[in-house]
Predict the 3D structure of the following.
Amino acid sequence: MADERFAEHLQFPTGLGAHPDGAFDGVAGGAACGDLIRIRIATDGRSVTGAGFDASGCGAATAAASAAVSLAEGESVFDAARIDAAAISAELGELSPGKFHAADLAADALATALGAAVAAAPRRPASELDPNRVLVALSGGVDSAVAAVLEARAGREVVCVTLELWRSPENDAEKSCCSAGAVRIARSVAHHAGLAHLTMDLRDAFRAGVVEPYLEGHRAGATPNPCIRCNGNVRIDAMVALADRLGAGTLVTGHYAQVQDGLLRAGIDPAKDQAYMLAGLAPSTIARLRFPLGHLTKPEVRALALEAGISVAKRPESQDLCFLAGTGKAAFLQRHGQIEDRPGVFVDLDGEVVGAHAGAHHFTVGQRRGLGLGGGPVRYVIAIDAAANTVTVGEAEDLETRVVELTGVALHRSQASVRSVRLRYHARDIACRLEGTTLHLDEPFAGVAPGQSACLLDGDLVVGTGTIVGPG
Protein backbone atom coordinates (compact mmCIF):
# COMPACT_ATOMS: atom_id res chain seq x y z
CA MET A 1 0.00 0.00 0.00
CA ALA A 2 1.03 3.57 -0.56
CA ASP A 3 2.65 5.08 2.54
CA GLU A 4 3.69 8.54 3.67
CA ARG A 5 5.63 8.99 0.44
CA PHE A 6 2.33 9.14 -1.42
CA ALA A 7 1.06 11.78 1.01
CA GLU A 8 4.26 13.80 0.62
CA HIS A 9 4.04 13.85 -3.19
CA LEU A 10 0.36 14.75 -2.93
CA GLN A 11 0.81 17.57 -0.39
CA PHE A 12 4.18 18.87 -1.62
CA PRO A 13 4.33 17.86 -5.30
CA THR A 14 7.66 18.20 -7.09
CA GLY A 15 7.48 20.40 -10.17
CA LEU A 16 3.77 21.27 -10.03
CA GLY A 17 3.19 24.19 -12.40
CA ALA A 18 6.87 24.42 -13.37
CA HIS A 19 7.68 25.40 -16.96
CA PRO A 20 11.41 24.88 -17.56
CA ASP A 21 12.89 26.86 -20.45
CA GLY A 22 12.86 24.89 -23.67
CA ALA A 23 10.70 22.13 -22.23
CA PHE A 24 8.53 19.77 -24.28
CA ASP A 25 5.17 18.39 -23.23
CA GLY A 26 3.83 14.87 -22.94
CA VAL A 27 0.15 14.34 -22.19
CA ALA A 28 -1.71 11.20 -21.08
CA GLY A 29 -5.26 10.53 -19.94
CA GLY A 30 -8.32 12.61 -20.68
CA ALA A 31 -12.05 12.18 -20.87
CA ALA A 32 -12.07 8.37 -20.89
CA CYS A 33 -10.64 8.04 -17.38
CA GLY A 34 -11.16 11.53 -15.97
CA ASP A 35 -7.48 11.96 -15.07
CA LEU A 36 -5.09 14.09 -17.13
CA ILE A 37 -1.34 14.41 -16.67
CA ARG A 38 0.90 16.82 -18.58
CA ILE A 39 4.63 16.48 -17.96
CA ARG A 40 7.21 18.95 -19.26
CA ILE A 41 10.83 17.91 -19.83
CA ALA A 42 13.85 19.99 -20.80
CA THR A 43 17.11 18.34 -21.79
CA ASP A 44 20.50 19.22 -23.19
CA GLY A 45 20.47 15.93 -25.10
CA ARG A 46 22.43 14.14 -22.40
CA SER A 47 20.54 14.75 -19.17
CA VAL A 48 17.20 16.07 -17.95
CA THR A 49 17.86 19.70 -17.07
CA GLY A 50 14.36 20.58 -15.92
CA ALA A 51 10.93 19.05 -15.37
CA GLY A 52 7.46 20.13 -14.37
CA PHE A 53 3.86 18.98 -14.57
CA ASP A 54 0.17 19.74 -14.29
CA ALA A 55 -2.45 17.20 -13.34
CA SER A 56 -6.20 17.04 -12.91
CA GLY A 57 -8.56 14.37 -11.65
CA CYS A 58 -7.84 12.16 -8.68
CA GLY A 59 -5.07 12.78 -6.17
CA ALA A 60 -3.18 9.75 -7.42
CA ALA A 61 -2.62 11.53 -10.74
CA THR A 62 -0.93 14.45 -8.99
CA ALA A 63 1.16 12.16 -6.82
CA ALA A 64 2.23 9.98 -9.75
CA ALA A 65 3.20 12.97 -11.89
CA SER A 66 5.19 14.40 -9.00
CA ALA A 67 6.96 11.07 -8.54
CA ALA A 68 7.79 10.87 -12.26
CA VAL A 69 9.24 14.38 -12.25
CA SER A 70 11.33 13.76 -9.12
CA LEU A 71 12.68 10.50 -10.56
CA ALA A 72 13.61 12.08 -13.91
CA GLU A 73 14.99 15.49 -13.00
CA GLY A 74 18.78 15.60 -13.08
CA GLU A 75 19.11 12.06 -14.44
CA SER A 76 20.78 11.11 -17.70
CA VAL A 77 18.43 10.79 -20.65
CA PHE A 78 19.03 7.04 -20.67
CA ASP A 79 18.22 6.60 -16.96
CA ALA A 80 15.12 8.77 -17.34
CA ALA A 81 14.10 6.59 -20.29
CA ARG A 82 14.10 3.54 -17.98
CA ILE A 83 11.47 5.00 -15.65
CA ASP A 84 8.30 2.94 -15.89
CA ALA A 85 5.00 2.72 -14.03
CA ALA A 86 6.48 0.24 -11.55
CA ALA A 87 9.27 2.68 -10.63
CA ILE A 88 6.75 5.49 -10.19
CA SER A 89 4.57 3.25 -8.01
CA ALA A 90 7.62 2.27 -5.93
CA GLU A 91 8.49 5.95 -5.42
CA LEU A 92 5.01 6.34 -3.94
CA GLY A 93 5.36 3.35 -1.63
CA GLU A 94 3.61 0.92 -3.98
CA LEU A 95 0.22 2.01 -5.28
CA SER A 96 -2.86 -0.10 -4.80
CA PRO A 97 -4.34 -1.72 -7.92
CA GLY A 98 -7.07 0.92 -7.96
CA LYS A 99 -4.53 3.74 -8.18
CA PHE A 100 -1.90 2.11 -10.37
CA HIS A 101 -3.48 3.57 -13.52
CA ALA A 102 -2.11 6.95 -12.41
CA ALA A 103 1.45 5.56 -12.58
CA ASP A 104 0.70 4.27 -16.09
CA LEU A 105 -0.49 7.72 -17.17
CA ALA A 106 2.56 9.43 -15.65
CA ALA A 107 4.89 6.97 -17.39
CA ASP A 108 3.14 7.60 -20.71
CA ALA A 109 3.37 11.38 -20.33
CA LEU A 110 7.01 11.23 -19.24
CA ALA A 111 8.00 9.01 -22.16
CA THR A 112 6.30 11.28 -24.70
CA ALA A 113 7.82 14.45 -23.23
CA LEU A 114 11.29 12.93 -23.01
CA GLY A 115 11.12 11.66 -26.59
CA ALA A 116 10.05 15.07 -27.90
CA ALA A 117 12.80 16.83 -25.96
CA VAL A 118 15.53 14.49 -27.19
CA ALA A 119 14.23 14.66 -30.79
CA ALA A 120 14.70 18.44 -30.69
CA ALA A 121 18.25 18.30 -29.34
CA PRO A 122 21.16 19.08 -31.71
CA ARG A 123 22.57 16.20 -33.75
CA ARG A 124 26.05 15.22 -32.61
CA PRO A 125 28.91 15.15 -35.11
CA ALA A 126 30.19 11.81 -36.37
CA SER A 127 33.24 12.11 -34.11
CA GLU A 128 30.97 11.97 -31.04
CA LEU A 129 29.01 8.88 -32.06
CA ASP A 130 29.72 5.81 -29.93
CA PRO A 131 30.13 2.68 -32.09
CA ASN A 132 29.09 0.53 -29.14
CA ARG A 133 25.84 2.43 -28.53
CA VAL A 134 22.89 1.40 -30.70
CA LEU A 135 19.38 2.69 -31.17
CA VAL A 136 16.92 -0.16 -31.71
CA ALA A 137 13.63 0.48 -33.50
CA LEU A 138 11.15 -1.36 -31.28
CA SER A 139 7.67 -1.89 -32.76
CA GLY A 140 6.11 -4.03 -30.05
CA GLY A 141 6.39 -7.17 -32.19
CA VAL A 142 8.59 -10.20 -31.76
CA ASP A 143 11.13 -9.37 -34.50
CA SER A 144 12.30 -6.03 -33.13
CA ALA A 145 12.25 -7.38 -29.57
CA VAL A 146 14.63 -10.19 -30.55
CA ALA A 147 16.85 -7.70 -32.38
CA ALA A 148 17.14 -5.68 -29.15
CA VAL A 149 17.97 -8.81 -27.13
CA LEU A 150 20.66 -9.88 -29.60
CA GLU A 151 22.27 -6.44 -29.49
CA ALA A 152 22.28 -6.45 -25.67
CA ARG A 153 23.77 -9.95 -25.62
CA ALA A 154 26.53 -8.73 -27.93
CA GLY A 155 27.56 -6.31 -25.18
CA ARG A 156 26.25 -3.15 -26.80
CA GLU A 157 24.60 -0.26 -25.01
CA VAL A 158 21.00 -0.46 -26.22
CA VAL A 159 18.49 2.38 -26.35
CA CYS A 160 15.06 1.63 -27.84
CA VAL A 161 12.66 3.90 -29.67
CA THR A 162 9.08 3.37 -30.77
CA LEU A 163 7.36 5.62 -33.26
CA GLU A 164 3.77 6.67 -32.95
CA LEU A 165 2.73 7.23 -36.55
CA TRP A 166 -1.04 7.05 -36.50
CA ARG A 167 -3.88 7.54 -34.05
CA SER A 168 -7.50 7.15 -35.05
CA PRO A 169 -10.63 5.97 -33.20
CA GLU A 170 -11.18 3.05 -35.57
CA ASN A 171 -7.56 1.88 -35.46
CA ASP A 172 -6.98 -1.46 -33.71
CA ALA A 173 -3.95 -1.04 -31.43
CA GLU A 174 -3.44 -4.78 -31.13
CA LYS A 175 -3.07 -5.18 -34.89
CA SER A 176 -1.08 -2.02 -35.57
CA CYS A 177 2.67 -1.54 -35.18
CA CYS A 178 2.53 2.24 -34.84
CA SER A 179 -0.42 3.13 -32.60
CA ALA A 180 -0.38 4.51 -29.05
CA GLY A 181 -1.24 1.02 -27.81
CA ALA A 182 1.70 -0.50 -29.67
CA VAL A 183 3.98 2.15 -28.15
CA ARG A 184 2.95 1.05 -24.65
CA ILE A 185 3.54 -2.62 -25.50
CA ALA A 186 7.00 -1.83 -26.87
CA ARG A 187 7.89 0.27 -23.84
CA SER A 188 6.87 -2.60 -21.57
CA VAL A 189 9.09 -5.01 -23.53
CA ALA A 190 12.06 -2.65 -23.29
CA HIS A 191 11.65 -1.90 -19.59
CA HIS A 192 11.16 -5.57 -18.75
CA ALA A 193 14.59 -6.16 -20.30
CA GLY A 194 16.07 -3.21 -18.39
CA LEU A 195 16.51 -1.12 -21.55
CA ALA A 196 16.00 2.60 -22.01
CA HIS A 197 12.98 3.44 -24.16
CA LEU A 198 11.95 6.62 -25.95
CA THR A 199 8.77 7.51 -27.84
CA MET A 200 8.77 9.65 -30.99
CA ASP A 201 5.57 11.24 -32.24
CA LEU A 202 5.84 11.33 -36.04
CA ARG A 203 2.13 11.55 -36.78
CA ASP A 204 2.33 14.84 -38.69
CA ALA A 205 5.24 13.68 -40.85
CA PHE A 206 3.54 10.32 -41.46
CA ARG A 207 0.29 11.95 -42.50
CA ALA A 208 2.09 14.30 -44.91
CA GLY A 209 4.67 11.87 -46.26
CA VAL A 210 2.74 8.59 -46.36
CA VAL A 211 -1.02 8.88 -45.86
CA GLU A 212 -1.63 11.87 -48.14
CA PRO A 213 0.32 10.30 -51.07
CA TYR A 214 -1.59 7.06 -50.43
CA LEU A 215 -4.90 8.89 -50.68
CA GLU A 216 -3.77 10.84 -53.75
CA GLY A 217 -2.63 7.65 -55.44
CA HIS A 218 -6.05 6.08 -55.00
CA ARG A 219 -7.72 9.21 -56.33
CA ALA A 220 -5.58 8.80 -59.45
CA GLY A 221 -6.38 5.10 -59.87
CA ALA A 222 -2.94 3.89 -58.79
CA THR A 223 -1.95 1.23 -56.23
CA PRO A 224 0.45 3.04 -53.88
CA ASN A 225 3.08 1.30 -51.79
CA PRO A 226 3.03 3.24 -48.50
CA CYS A 227 5.48 0.95 -46.66
CA ILE A 228 8.34 1.71 -49.05
CA ARG A 229 7.52 5.41 -48.87
CA CYS A 230 7.38 5.28 -45.06
CA ASN A 231 10.72 3.50 -44.74
CA GLY A 232 12.42 5.57 -47.42
CA ASN A 233 11.06 9.03 -46.59
CA VAL A 234 9.81 9.16 -43.01
CA ARG A 235 10.61 6.66 -40.28
CA ILE A 236 14.14 5.34 -40.91
CA ASP A 237 15.78 8.71 -41.52
CA ALA A 238 13.98 10.16 -38.48
CA MET A 239 15.42 7.39 -36.33
CA VAL A 240 18.92 7.84 -37.76
CA ALA A 241 18.64 11.52 -36.80
CA LEU A 242 17.58 10.48 -33.29
CA ALA A 243 20.55 8.11 -33.12
CA ASP A 244 22.79 11.08 -33.87
CA ARG A 245 21.19 13.07 -31.05
CA LEU A 246 21.75 10.17 -28.65
CA GLY A 247 25.33 9.59 -29.75
CA ALA A 248 24.51 6.15 -31.14
CA GLY A 249 26.62 4.99 -34.06
CA THR A 250 24.09 2.50 -35.45
CA LEU A 251 20.35 2.13 -35.94
CA VAL A 252 19.18 -1.47 -35.53
CA THR A 253 15.87 -2.79 -36.85
CA GLY A 254 14.12 -6.15 -36.88
CA HIS A 255 13.82 -6.33 -40.66
CA TYR A 256 14.80 -9.51 -42.47
CA ALA A 257 17.50 -7.98 -44.65
CA GLN A 258 21.28 -7.70 -44.81
CA VAL A 259 23.89 -5.14 -45.84
CA GLN A 260 26.75 -5.93 -48.19
CA ASP A 261 29.19 -3.50 -49.82
CA GLY A 262 27.02 -0.57 -48.77
CA LEU A 263 23.89 -2.01 -50.41
CA LEU A 264 20.83 -3.79 -49.14
CA ARG A 265 20.91 -7.53 -49.59
CA ALA A 266 18.02 -9.98 -49.26
CA GLY A 267 17.58 -11.82 -45.96
CA ILE A 268 18.26 -15.53 -46.03
CA ASP A 269 14.63 -16.45 -45.28
CA PRO A 270 12.83 -16.01 -48.63
CA ALA A 271 9.45 -16.16 -46.91
CA LYS A 272 10.32 -13.10 -44.80
CA ASP A 273 12.85 -11.16 -46.89
CA GLN A 274 12.10 -7.43 -46.53
CA ALA A 275 14.76 -5.86 -48.73
CA TYR A 276 11.96 -4.86 -51.14
CA MET A 277 10.28 -2.81 -48.41
CA LEU A 278 13.55 -1.00 -47.66
CA ALA A 279 14.48 -0.38 -51.30
CA GLY A 280 13.82 3.36 -51.06
CA LEU A 281 16.65 3.94 -48.57
CA ALA A 282 19.61 6.03 -49.64
CA PRO A 283 23.10 4.50 -49.35
CA SER A 284 24.01 7.09 -46.71
CA THR A 285 21.19 5.78 -44.55
CA ILE A 286 22.01 2.11 -45.22
CA ALA A 287 25.54 2.78 -43.95
CA ARG A 288 24.07 3.48 -40.49
CA LEU A 289 21.91 0.34 -40.29
CA ARG A 290 22.31 -3.16 -38.90
CA PHE A 291 19.83 -6.04 -39.29
CA PRO A 292 20.53 -8.77 -36.71
CA LEU A 293 17.75 -10.98 -38.11
CA GLY A 294 18.98 -10.99 -41.69
CA HIS A 295 20.69 -14.36 -41.28
CA LEU A 296 17.80 -15.94 -39.34
CA THR A 297 14.49 -17.56 -40.25
CA LYS A 298 11.20 -16.64 -38.61
CA PRO A 299 10.98 -19.93 -36.65
CA GLU A 300 14.48 -19.31 -35.32
CA VAL A 301 13.44 -15.82 -34.20
CA ARG A 302 10.34 -17.15 -32.45
CA ALA A 303 12.50 -19.73 -30.67
CA LEU A 304 14.94 -17.05 -29.51
CA ALA A 305 12.05 -14.96 -28.20
CA LEU A 306 10.64 -17.85 -26.21
CA GLU A 307 14.07 -18.72 -24.82
CA ALA A 308 14.57 -15.09 -23.75
CA GLY A 309 11.15 -14.93 -22.11
CA ILE A 310 9.98 -12.04 -24.28
CA SER A 311 6.32 -11.29 -23.54
CA VAL A 312 5.41 -10.80 -27.22
CA ALA A 313 7.07 -14.05 -28.35
CA LYS A 314 3.76 -15.45 -29.60
CA ARG A 315 2.18 -12.17 -30.70
CA PRO A 316 0.69 -12.57 -34.20
CA GLU A 317 2.12 -10.53 -37.04
CA SER A 318 0.28 -7.54 -38.43
CA GLN A 319 -1.18 -8.33 -41.84
CA ASP A 320 -2.67 -4.92 -42.69
CA LEU A 321 -1.05 -1.61 -43.46
CA CYS A 322 -0.50 -0.10 -40.01
CA PHE A 323 -2.99 2.70 -40.52
CA LEU A 324 -5.64 0.28 -41.84
CA ALA A 325 -5.50 -2.03 -38.81
CA GLY A 326 -9.03 -2.48 -37.51
CA THR A 327 -10.69 -0.79 -40.47
CA GLY A 328 -11.17 -1.50 -44.18
CA LYS A 329 -9.53 0.29 -47.08
CA ALA A 330 -12.82 1.67 -48.42
CA ALA A 331 -13.81 3.08 -45.02
CA PHE A 332 -10.36 4.61 -44.59
CA LEU A 333 -10.43 6.27 -48.01
CA GLN A 334 -13.84 7.72 -47.27
CA ARG A 335 -13.01 8.91 -43.76
CA HIS A 336 -9.59 10.41 -44.40
CA GLY A 337 -9.64 11.20 -48.12
CA GLN A 338 -13.33 11.88 -48.73
CA ILE A 339 -13.13 9.35 -51.57
CA GLU A 340 -16.77 8.34 -51.84
CA ASP A 341 -18.45 5.56 -53.75
CA ARG A 342 -19.85 6.64 -57.10
CA PRO A 343 -21.40 4.34 -59.70
CA GLY A 344 -19.12 3.37 -62.59
CA VAL A 345 -18.80 0.64 -65.19
CA PHE A 346 -16.55 -2.24 -66.14
CA VAL A 347 -15.58 -2.29 -69.81
CA ASP A 348 -13.80 -4.89 -71.90
CA LEU A 349 -10.80 -4.22 -74.13
CA ASP A 350 -13.15 -3.13 -76.91
CA GLY A 351 -14.80 -0.55 -74.68
CA GLU A 352 -18.05 -2.47 -74.31
CA VAL A 353 -19.78 -2.19 -70.93
CA VAL A 354 -19.82 -5.57 -69.17
CA GLY A 355 -20.90 -4.62 -65.64
CA ALA A 356 -21.23 -1.97 -62.94
CA HIS A 357 -19.23 -1.11 -59.84
CA ALA A 358 -19.39 1.27 -56.87
CA GLY A 359 -16.18 3.18 -57.62
CA ALA A 360 -12.85 2.68 -59.38
CA HIS A 361 -10.94 3.21 -56.11
CA HIS A 362 -12.05 -0.24 -54.94
CA PHE A 363 -9.84 -2.01 -57.52
CA THR A 364 -6.22 -2.62 -58.44
CA VAL A 365 -4.58 -3.88 -61.61
CA GLY A 366 -4.39 -7.68 -61.57
CA GLN A 367 -7.38 -8.12 -59.24
CA ARG A 368 -9.79 -10.94 -60.07
CA ARG A 369 -11.75 -11.49 -56.87
CA GLY A 370 -14.64 -9.30 -55.84
CA LEU A 371 -15.44 -7.95 -59.30
CA GLY A 372 -19.00 -9.29 -59.26
CA LEU A 373 -18.90 -10.27 -62.92
CA GLY A 374 -20.60 -13.64 -63.11
CA GLY A 375 -20.42 -16.08 -66.00
CA GLY A 376 -17.86 -16.51 -68.77
CA PRO A 377 -14.11 -16.73 -68.33
CA VAL A 378 -12.33 -15.46 -65.24
CA ARG A 379 -11.68 -11.76 -65.71
CA TYR A 380 -8.98 -9.54 -64.27
CA VAL A 381 -8.57 -5.80 -63.85
CA ILE A 382 -6.38 -4.64 -66.73
CA ALA A 383 -6.50 -0.86 -66.27
CA ILE A 384 -8.20 1.82 -64.16
CA ASP A 385 -9.32 5.24 -65.42
CA ALA A 386 -10.07 7.16 -62.23
CA ALA A 387 -11.23 10.32 -64.04
CA ALA A 388 -13.80 8.42 -66.09
CA ASN A 389 -14.49 6.00 -63.19
CA THR A 390 -14.14 3.03 -65.52
CA VAL A 391 -12.36 -0.27 -64.89
CA THR A 392 -11.10 -2.24 -67.88
CA VAL A 393 -11.21 -6.01 -67.50
CA GLY A 394 -9.84 -8.87 -69.58
CA GLU A 395 -8.39 -12.35 -69.39
CA ALA A 396 -5.13 -13.39 -67.75
CA GLU A 397 -3.02 -13.09 -70.89
CA ASP A 398 -4.19 -9.49 -71.32
CA LEU A 399 -2.26 -8.57 -68.16
CA GLU A 400 1.07 -9.73 -69.53
CA THR A 401 3.77 -7.31 -70.62
CA ARG A 402 7.50 -7.40 -71.33
CA VAL A 403 7.98 -3.63 -71.06
CA VAL A 404 7.47 -1.53 -67.91
CA GLU A 405 7.74 2.24 -67.67
CA LEU A 406 9.12 3.74 -64.45
CA THR A 407 9.37 7.15 -62.87
CA GLY A 408 11.57 8.42 -60.05
CA VAL A 409 14.36 5.97 -60.82
CA ALA A 410 17.16 6.10 -58.24
CA LEU A 411 20.27 4.00 -58.94
CA HIS A 412 23.00 3.14 -56.43
CA ARG A 413 25.15 1.45 -59.07
CA SER A 414 25.40 1.78 -62.87
CA GLN A 415 22.42 1.14 -65.13
CA ALA A 416 24.22 -1.92 -66.49
CA SER A 417 24.25 -3.45 -63.00
CA VAL A 418 20.45 -3.87 -63.08
CA ARG A 419 20.04 -7.54 -63.99
CA SER A 420 16.62 -8.34 -62.54
CA VAL A 421 13.59 -6.66 -60.99
CA ARG A 422 10.92 -7.43 -58.41
CA LEU A 423 7.66 -5.73 -59.38
CA ARG A 424 5.60 -6.64 -56.31
CA TYR A 425 6.57 -7.51 -52.74
CA HIS A 426 6.06 -11.26 -53.01
CA ALA A 427 6.63 -11.59 -56.74
CA ARG A 428 9.60 -13.57 -58.02
CA ASP A 429 12.54 -11.72 -59.55
CA ILE A 430 12.51 -11.38 -63.33
CA ALA A 431 15.63 -10.95 -65.45
CA CYS A 432 15.64 -7.61 -67.26
CA ARG A 433 17.66 -4.73 -68.60
CA LEU A 434 17.11 -1.06 -67.82
CA GLU A 435 17.26 1.59 -70.55
CA GLY A 436 16.67 5.03 -69.11
CA THR A 437 13.34 4.69 -67.33
CA THR A 438 12.18 1.67 -69.32
CA LEU A 439 12.50 -1.92 -68.12
CA HIS A 440 12.73 -4.65 -70.75
CA LEU A 441 11.79 -7.99 -69.19
CA ASP A 442 13.17 -11.32 -70.37
CA GLU A 443 9.76 -12.90 -69.87
CA PRO A 444 6.18 -11.63 -69.57
CA PHE A 445 4.91 -10.36 -66.23
CA ALA A 446 1.20 -10.25 -65.43
CA GLY A 447 -0.25 -7.44 -63.35
CA VAL A 448 2.07 -4.44 -63.59
CA ALA A 449 0.28 -2.00 -61.26
CA PRO A 450 0.85 1.77 -61.51
CA GLY A 451 2.05 3.15 -58.18
CA GLN A 452 3.81 -0.02 -57.05
CA SER A 453 7.58 -0.06 -56.58
CA ALA A 454 10.11 -1.72 -58.83
CA CYS A 455 13.04 -3.06 -56.81
CA LEU A 456 16.08 -3.13 -59.13
CA LEU A 457 18.48 -5.97 -58.40
CA ASP A 458 21.90 -7.41 -59.15
CA GLY A 459 21.53 -10.91 -57.80
CA ASP A 460 20.20 -10.41 -54.27
CA LEU A 461 21.63 -6.88 -53.95
CA VAL A 462 19.30 -3.89 -54.25
CA VAL A 463 20.95 -1.51 -56.73
CA GLY A 464 18.04 0.89 -57.22
CA THR A 465 14.34 1.52 -57.22
CA GLY A 466 11.61 3.25 -59.18
CA THR A 467 7.85 3.69 -59.24
CA ILE A 468 5.80 1.88 -61.87
CA VAL A 469 3.94 4.09 -64.36
CA GLY A 470 2.50 1.13 -66.22
CA PRO A 471 3.15 -1.28 -69.10
CA GLY A 472 5.21 0.12 -71.97
